[in-house]
Amino acid sequence: MVVTALVLAVIPGHRGWFDIGVYYGTVRHWFETGQLYDYVRPGTAYGFTYPPFAAVCMLPMRLFGWHPAIAVGVVLSAVATALLLYWLVDPIARRRGWCRWYAFGLAACLCGLSNPVRDTFSFGQVNLLLVALVFADRQLADSRWKFMSGVGIGLAAAIKLTPALFIVHLLITRQWRAAGTATVTALGATGLGFLIGPEVSRQFWTATLWDTDRVGGFANMSNQSLQGLIARLGPQLPGRALWVAASLAVLAIWAHRLHRATRAGDTLAAYSLTGLACCLVSPITWVHHLVWVLPALVVLAEVALRERRRGLLTVSWLLQLVISSGMVWLWHPDGRTPGTLFGGSAYVLLTFTLLVAMPIRDRPDEPFKGLAAETHVADPVTASEPRPGRPDKRPAAVG
User: Fold this and answer.
1) Which of 251, 343, 332, 347 lies closest to 290 in space, CA to CA?
2) Short-list 118, 98, 117, CA closest to 106
3) Which residue, 40, 135, 185, 340, could crosslink 335 as a Cys pair with Cβ 3.0–4.6 Å?
């Protein structure tokens, strides 16, 4: 933990709370002028890009001074991170009989070192809050509060459009009630935005949403989406058509693997796959958006430990090193060297690799029982035989 604190203290790249400055200025500008999307942070070309409901959620910022607003933002992100780590890591620690506080502390250090988490805190972004809202629905799905499952996804989709893919996730996995709840919540929240700001809502949905120049250039090294990778390949390519084709291919892979995860009963892998797909198909995926990759890294590490696969554990550490390195900033978007195309797009390549190859666990919630319980793929001779006291169920493959 001391090493992590020292690294965070000296590592370059502090963002000066830039995004929370945009939110803070936008809310005040909205109150003073009635306009939302013509605000530009002084000295920059950047303004507010989220739907009006997001601005509604940020209205309490008007009650705070600048430094208290930063403090509140940091606390909210810290609480969201703690909840995510508890939901992701604590079940693994309990199954394997680890000290739960030690597992949580180690996971917190690795999480804090990752580039997306560092940037989320340093920019004052909302990404971790959105991930927490979505994964709260996963927690609710198996609780007595199941009737509320879908509310978190609906709110996240209304705040920032990319998480709307999780509504499709619920439909594909036949969670009809949760999908309906998420849809109604998203529409209701969007309607609240129209009610509070009808003019700015019309402006957003008819004009601002389609103005991609507001969010920066696609080729920017921070854009680790498929669109960003394509833009860096060269301006001579049919960027829009190639992006659509690549996105459709990614969505097909995602739907296939989502079905496999659902059949295996691995809901964490299922939600992780959808988060990866969100990052890939979004036109703009800044580095701080890649907090959606973290659950997939947890799945990968857990499989490596469960199956005692040293090679897979090495890959897990390597991916953690890559996502923590900030290596994409070592290149420039106007270069056409292999280093620019691969090192400068390392995060999007990592995201795609996880989407395609992240292991899917068979019945991951069963208690850990030693080496026998660690075997992920059943013996092919006995796999088709019903187990005593258990309904016949085909084991899920890894891949």
Assistant:
1) 347
2) 98
3) 340
pLDDT in tens, 324-356: 988 888 887 766 677 777 888 999 999 999 999
Distance CA 96, CA 352 (A): 29
Residue with tokens 């890009």: 49
CA pair distance 338, 323, nearest whole angstrom? 19
Tell me which long-range contacts 372-380 makes (C-beta under 8 A, separation of at least 24). Answer: 373/306, 374/306, 374/307, 374/308, 375/307, 376/303, 376/306, 376/307
CB 214 within 8 A of CB 208: yes
The backbone region for 363, taken as left when phi is positive above 0, alpha when psi lies in -120 to 50, beta otherwise, is left
Q: What local confidence, expressed as pLDDT, does residue 390 receive?
A: 40
**pLDDT band per the 50, 70, 90 thresholds, residue 208:** confident
Whole-number Cα distances in Å, 397 to 257, 266, 274, 304, 316: 10, 12, 19, 15, 20
Task: Write down the pTM of the prediction.
Answer: 0.87
